[in-house]
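Limitations
The structure tokens in this dataset are predictions for the assembled complex, not deposited experimental models. Users should treat interface geometry with appropriate caution, especially where small molecules or nucleic acid strands are included. An illustrative entry is reproduced here so readers can see what is and is not provided.
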Amino acid sequence: MISEGKEQITMEELEEIVLLIRGQYGYDFGDYARASLQRRLVRCMQQSGCRTPYELKYQLTNDKRFFAWFLEALTVNVTEMFRDPAFYRELRNNVLPKLASYPIIKIWHAGCATGEEVFSMAILLHEAGLLERTRLYATDLNPANLDRARQGIVPLQQMKDYTFNYIQSGGGNDFSSYYTARYENAIIHKEYRKNIVFAMHNLAADQVFNEFQLICCRNVLIYFNRDLQNRAVTLFRDSLAPLGYLALGMKESLLFTDVRDHFEAVHPAVRIYRSKM
Amino acid sequence: MKKRSFEVVAIGGSAGSMPVVRELLESMPGPLRFTVIIILHRLKNVHSEMARLLSVGLKGFRVREPDDKEPLKERSAYLVPQNYHLLIEADKTVCLDYSEPVHHSRPSIDVTFESVARVYAGRAVAILLSGASRDGADGLFAVIANGGVGIVQDPATAEYQTMPQAAITRTDRALVMKPGEIAAYLQTLNG
Ligand SMILES: C[S@@+](CC[C@H](N)C(=O)[O-])C[C@H]1O[C@@H](n2cnc3c(N)ncnc32)[C@H](O)[C@@H]1O
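Predicted assembly:
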């Protein structure tokens, strides 16, 4: 058990580590929310056995393989299938029917983690009869997440929870028909994954790469400070087709960003916005 | 007696704590004289009306779930949203976090108490109520270590004693009080 509690990293030490990572590895955490980044750094130290920030800096400077581990441990990769069933219900009932009028539908999952969210979307699209003409782009900063996502593997022990979520979201099929259980894993059937492209994309550095009718960026902006949130949501605005949809996490809001006037909160309870013309 | 002024009262509860949370909220006359943050262990992925239920019958204030980046106001009461941890930035804005559960819980009481300790230091009161886990003990310790006041519900009055007992074992500097005493204490706070 990790013992939480002792303050082990000061803000100054945190800034030094951010500078080091930027200089040596090109990842910029300068505009990440301080409260969560600090907690994350303490956790990395505890897990790697670094007793002081100095030891952590030493490891980061001298060991490239340590950095690969560190990057994975630093970003929060937690995710769920059909997290927030009310959100998926709204997509099912009110958003997908609108998207159905497009000959080709393009959807972007920014910060897709290990894929659970985009697999859920593919299942919804399948049930709406839209999957065949949809291209799903799922991107993340963390290459290890993408490797995992490409395999279509979800831990089997979670499937009970996910089945519950799926049913809550209005799903009427047998959820187990979407995957094969093998040992401790559930493998999502290939046919639901074939229209998904997984790629690296860093919301702090990369640009617009396509135009979409729907962008989902859920529980990623919470890790950013306001400046970086503004960068990301401006990127989303510029990546959306006219009247395109933007979906955020249940407690994320455009209210505190510069683009709030460019969007209308069409389903405010589940944080689905629509870009104005 | 030296007069202290407190900016925040953080209340953590788990199994068996709802009636006490209600009792404490009802005893607070609105407008509030401090920020209240309530951390409750609760189900995820189900429709929740907890904030509304907690608000029924309160005089002069309501309990709401904050959004990420929302500034925490004085004289307002907040409930940590389900399936998130709540951290606080140095500028007293909300920083939600979806990282691993702590003591099998998200939200975790430890996570918010420790953040409260860091940001509010000696201007924080943390209250730990009934529960069947050991979440909150380290957080309460952190609040006290940073100069704040830590209160534990007297285990004899708690439906589940594990949580208050774990905190009492963790630190002998917590004040142990019955629910009525906690309510009375809060009424004198910043008075
Ligand atoms: C908590 S997960 C959210 C997963 C999923 N969207 C959900 O809500 O279940 C956050 C993800 O954001 C990714 N992330 C963090 N910073 C990023 C950045 N600058 N650009 C792209 N992705 C980022 C992390 O690697 C992680 O996979």
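Some entries come with short summary sentences. For this one: The longest strand of chain B covers residues 8-13.
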